[in-house]
Amino acid sequence: MYMDPLADQMMLQFNGVSVLKKANIYFDGKCISRLVLFQDGSRATLGVLFPSKLNFDTKRRETMEIVAGSCRVRMSGSDEWSTYEAGERFVVPENSSFEIEVQEPTEYVCHYH
Amino acid sequence: MYMDPLADQMMLQFNGVSVLKKANIYFDGKCISRLVLFQDGSRATLGVLFPSKLNFDTKRRETMEIVAGSCRVRMSGSDEWSTYEAGERFVVPENSSFEIEVQEPTEYVCHYH
Q: Is A8 within a domain?
């Protein structure tokens, strides 16, 4: 029985996945992320953000699930900042970008669609 | 066919594992680690260390596999510092401790025996 990765959202862990040993370290260590590969071929990254204001581009549509901490997010083309906390998520369109600001270590799962 | 986690060492990823969504952040962000659970019940953590000198205690014997970067290590009770680079590993006895110093972001897999 295979679970939809997003359905795992309430769960504390992903099961039956592959995880890369090598992490991705961006923005001088303000963002550390690790790729997880699901059985159905989909992907997600498990990330940690340290206090900073960062800009991310997207190729594919992404669902950002906040696991710990909180963040303010501004989508490209918008002047509005929205706040998201642990347990909440937001969707970023494909071929877009978003600004994210954190004041405390904040953890996320980024699901790529 | 199940692979021994250490045999995976040359491999770039662990397959068929569980990974916790929540990371562990220690020493004010100088150490970020994430727990991986293997099918045979064994565990490992995937970690990132940022430039610092840190001391870790061990309960169980551990094999520290360096994935990226390099580190200097001093086992408790020894005055000797040894250097380990990506692809190398060292073993820390149970109920012991070690000091580890990194000058650059360094990544490891810690296998718990």
A: no
**Predicted confidence (pLDDT) per residue in A17-49, tens digit:** 999 999 999 999 999 999 999 999 999 999 999
Closest by Cα among B50, B53, B73 to B63: B73
Chain A nearest CA to B21, separation (Å): 5
B67, part of any domain: yes
ipTM over 0.85: yes
Separation in Å, CA A39 to CA A2, A18, A42, A44, B43:
8, 8, 7, 12, 21
* Nearest Cα residue in chain B from A10: B21
Query: Considering the domain boundaries, does residue A3 fall inside one?
Result: no
Its domain, for residue A67, covers: 20-112
Instruction: Judge whether B1 lies within some domain.
Output: no
Q: How far is A77 from chain B (nearest CA, A)?
A: 31
Report how far residue B85's alpha carbon sits from residue B72's, in angstroms, rounded to the nearest whole number. Answer: 9
Q: B22 to chain A: which residues are within 8 Å by CB? A: 12, 67-68, 107
Kindly report the CATH number assigned to the domain that includes residue A34: 2.60.120.10
With beta carbons under 8 A apart, name residues in chain A contacting B37.
13
Of B13, B56, B54, nearest to B36 by C-alpha is B13
